Amino acid sequence: SDEFKMVLGALELYDKTVAHSMTRFEDIFSVPSYLELNPTMVTQILEMGYTRIPIYEGDPKNVVSLLFVKDLALLDPQENLKVMNIANLYNHEVRRVLIDMPLRTMLEEFKRGEYHMALVEKLVEQEDRDPVYELCGLITLEDIIEEIIQCE
Ligand code: ATP
Ligand code: ATP
Prior knowledge:
By secondary structure, the protein is α/β, with parallel strands linked by helices. 34% of the residues lie in helices and 26% in strands. It is found in: Basolateral cell membrane; Cell membrane.
């Protein structure tokens, strides 16, 4: 039954980490900070259907801010503002978690309600230098709920 599957799904949260449910880096839709928000661009962004969009500078792994689609509501498309102008206006906090965070811990975090999407990073060791964090995905509450209701 569906209930049975949900209980199993919830139990499975216990030995899974964020890595299991995240959207992988390759599949992230993000935009460069210099992107001009002309009418064509705004349309394309809206058509992607995502609510929260990482903004990167230079390298797509270098996420510096977030664009919320609702931020575009008051935008005058004729002004041709750049993504970063909007980002600076709203200044949404970028939350980051480690790829080996247990899914149930991530769920508790999301339930607190302060944020609904986190960038997933892993620590990469480097020879003779300090380790660096590297972006490897993103995760939202939706991803964990899917895990619980076992719809994939
Ligand atoms: P299960 O063990 O339940 O079968 P799984 O096979 O889907 O789960 P997970 O270990 O949960 O594997 O990881 C999900 C995906 O995330 C895998 O496809 C794996 O390649 C990727 N992944 C896991 N750990 C890392 C990591 N440290 N860095 C990058 N990607 C990772
Ligand atoms: P909401 O449902 O709150 O309007 P949404 O549809 O943009 O937001 P979620 O429902 O939170 O996003 O997540 C749906 C799926 O899309 C999840 O698998 C999530 O990891 C993925 N996702 C969310 N934002 C992005 C993005 N910018 N790029 C790629 N995948 C994303």
